[in-house]
Amino acid sequence: MNIRKIGEEVADTLVKEMQETGKLSPVKFEDNVTIKEMIGTDDGAREFIEKVTYDAFSGRENVPLLYKDIYSTLTDANFPKTMTVKEFGPVQTVFLEKLEGGEVKFGSLGSGPEKTVSFKTWAAGIEYDEDIVEWNQTWRVSDIGVSFGESYNKLLNHLHLNPIISGSYVTTGGGLAAQKAKQESTTNGAAQLIAYDTSIAKTLTNALQVLPRGSVVLHNSFDAFALQNAIAGDLMPDLTAGPVKKSLSNAKFIAYDGETVEVGGKTYSYGGVAQGYIYLLAPKVNFKEYIKHDLRVDSGDGDLSRLVLTQVVGRARRAQVAGLSGAYGAIKIDIAS
Q1: Which residues neighbour 2 within 8 Å (Cβ) at sequence distance 6 or greater?
Q2: What confidence tens digit (pLDDT) does each residue in 174-215 have?
Q3: Closest of 150, 134, 130, 152 to residue 142, by C-alpha
Q4: Structure letter (DSSP) for residue 306
Q5: Ordered strands of the 287-303 beta sheet
Q6: Among candidate residues 245, 215, 12, the one with its CA nearest the CA of residue 4
Q7: For the whole model, what pTM was predicted?
Q8: How far apart are the first and last CA of the chain?
Q9: d(Cα 337, Cα 330) in Å, to the nearest integer?
Q10: How far is residue 158 from each of residues 235, 277, 281, 314, measured CA to CA in Å?
């Protein structure tokens, strides 16, 4: 029996169901089937891996993927382990009158720096011990699988948001015009740090001059109210919307305070956005996630010496690129007075 194939088929079915309905349908054990039969027989093994895969996807529903509005996704099972990609510069097109016998003027992509993409394998394992079988503890099967899925999504948020949060940002001298030029330079560009300027609204106004395409705001949840208040209060003397309110009233706001995962008494921490700072991003163009294959779940033999009946391993092979400099990049903004 090809357990990997079963796991992949179940995962594909669950992904399709989530896309179509937005949720997972309940999965139950067959009548009169015990955990022992599920682990110890060929027919049960299929049902067991289906159950584990379902619970893992159920766990993933509990931890939203926050980065999807920032990154575009490319999936290809034929991706090589290492490849070179090019960040896109400004798209340059022009419409001209088409004269008889003339040619259409084709647009071009502005030049951008090249980056090396290296795929990594991310893996985790869970074990089901003999007590689960002896006491037919169905609830433990579910809890372990759900935790599996939650941990995977926490990892994905960290992999994609940490390059933005921990990136290098500089304050180029010479005013906002100089900062904009440095941000957009295709030869020696650098992501900019925008200093606080009298108020949050004024600071955001300055930031939008440096990155006018910015439409996603990554922030700490503590700063959410101050941001919303500053944007809502940005009004002109005639009470019409000011530049910040016009630009950011429909922006996507993503709160990320980080995560922690505890395994075997050891705590793994994923850092979030620090209070007093936010990140303004122009999404998709310079932010890419590459998936060779997403979460794949298999089960295998256990370890009798530890009374472990079966082991389940999940792994994924993927990479990501975050281009911070450029007109489609990111800037860091100090909003603390």
Answers
A1: none
A2: 999 999 999 999 889 999 999 999 999 999 999 999 999 999
A3: 150
A4: G
A5: 72-75, 287-303, 308-322, 120-129
A6: 12
A7: 0.82
A8: 63
A9: 22
A10: 36, 18, 17, 18
